[in-house]
Amino acid sequence: MAATHLAFDDTDSPEGMCTTYLACLMLEEFDDLDLIGLPRLVRLNPNVPWKTRGNAAVCLSLGTGSGRSTVCGGLRTGAVRSYPEGRAVDPGAVMRRAVKVLRENARFECEKTNPGIVVSNSRPSPSFYWRTVRQVVKRPEAEEAVRKAHGIRRGFKNGRGVIGATAAMSWRPRDRTWEVIAYREPSRFGSERDVDTRSVISMDRATRHTFNNYDAENGHVAIVPGSPCPILFGIRGDSAPELLRARKMIRGEPQDRWLLYLSNQGTEDHIARRRVRDLGPWLSASVRAEVARRPRTLAGGHVIVNIHDGDAIDAAFYEPSRSLRDVARSLIPGDEVRVIGSVRDVPRSLNVEKLEVVSLADDIRKAHNPLCARCGKRMGSMGSGKGYRCKRCGSHSPPEAAEMTAVPRRVSVGWYEPPVSSRRHLHKPIRRMSKGIINKI
After folding, report:
1. CATH assignment of 272-362+409-432?
2. Where in the chain is the domain with CATH 2.40.50.1010?
3. Do 180 and 244 meet the contact criterion of CB atoms below 8 Å apart?
4. Per residue in 204-218, pLDDT tens?
5. What does DSSP assign to residue 293?
6. In the chain, which end has fewer C-beta atoms inside a 10 angstrom radius, N or C?
7. Does domain 1-265 have CATH number 3.30.70.2200?
8. Which stretches within 266-379 are classed as H helix?
9. For the whole model, what pTM was predicted?
């Protein structure tokens, strides 16, 4: 697919704006060009400390389209049509116009906002995307990737946005999802959103391939953001046609603009299988290990489970994970688990995003103190690990003489995840997984 790729990142702030909204404004600026393929919404390493909000970058492919087009958006300039094929245009001209739009709309006043733009007629190596979604990448690495792709770049302030822009452009999907995003009228930015909850629940029930719409456990509408950004709602799923229908099911305030994106959300591209010894700050990992000690509950309701695969680390289940903590509390030493999460540096822990119980140990507990062989009476304990003594005749029995019984387990083998509102953008819902036993909790 020949096209001129335009990617940008780091234009928003916690107080407003959104990089996906800038995509709408860019397409309105380039209404004399065609959109080749869908806009791409690419989430990157969710653990980097300098992200503004969701750590997302956007890539648009522009040019002269050919083939049968389909509608993938609605803007102030009219319907947005996506073409399957196209011809590239002058990257320099695209960069000059894109810089103008970014300068007028990026939130430069925010300390963490450091925009970047990349334009190229060829995509950088996909290896750069994989490094950026799983590790911490420095700007010179992005600049080298752009140079090798014969592209051009422009950074503002410290220019960190060049990293995300390069990564978004270099993404070649292995797994992919879609998201349709509806935007608010500018006069409503920052005010309370009006989205009818019943329409969201109805849409969730009426669609088969959407996910993370409504959090029934917490009574929370998950498609509506909590920040003062331009987004009204965003619906994610595995079927682009179904998402286009789902958008029309939502009632509430007017949808001023809308756009359908191809995305890596819900793919868990940020997760790599690692050993405990290889875990470091700002990484995300899938670790297969054994439960070392019985869980403990901290003040605030957080649950800590110590796991080991030769080396040990605490797996932390925080209070917002709600019912997932009940699963954690049911684990015992000897259980084999796969923990998916992100590494916290201080205190060092693996913050759990999803859990697989691989196998369960027998929960053997003491049922009764042993009977005295002489008197036939129950013996008394002399203390932990010290055995038993008969109060009548004084005879002794070792600790292992106690009568033991197997306690039924309150957890089953299979996958478990937190409520919808506690899931990250890249979290792969269990319903998207092709293998594994699914447990509703």
Report:
1. 2.40.50.1010
2. 272-362+409-432
3. yes
4. 999 999 999 999 999
5. S
6. N
7. yes
8. 323-329
9. 0.91
Q: Quote the tokens at residue 286.
A: 């899938």
3-class SS of residue 411: coil
Tens of pLDDT, residue by residue over 146-168, are 999 999 999 999 999 999 999 99
Interatomic CA distance for residues 122 and 125, integer angstroms: 9
One-character DSSP codes across 117-172? EEEESSPPPHHHHHHHHHS---HHHHHHHHHHTT-EEEE-TT-THHHHHHHHHH--
- Can you tell me whether residue 340 is helix, strand or coil? strand
Phi, psi dihedral angles at 198 (to 5 degrees): -65, -35
For residue 395, give every residue at least 6 positions away whose Cβ sits within 8 Å of its Cβ, in sequence order, or none.
372, 373, 374, 375, 379, 389
The answer to whether the beta carbons of residues 317 and 324 sit under 8 Å apart is yes
CB 176 within 8 A of CB 141: no
The CA-to-CA distance between both ends of the chain, in Å, stands at 44
Tokens coding 195: 């989205």
Q: Return all residues near 316 (Cβ < 8 A) that are at least 6 apart.
A: 302, 303, 304, 341, 344, 349, 350, 351, 352
8 Å CB contact between 61 and 35? yes
Buried b vs exposed e over 340-359: b needs ≥16 C-beta within 10 Å? bbbbbeeeebbbbbbbbbee
Every domain range in the chain assigned CATH 3.30.70.2200: 1-265
Q: Rounded distance, CA 407 to CA 364, Å?
A: 6
Each residue of 35-67: pLDDT tens digit? 999 999 999 999 988 877 778 999 999 999 999
Question: Does residue 393 contact residue 411 with C-beta atoms inside 8 Å?
Answer: no
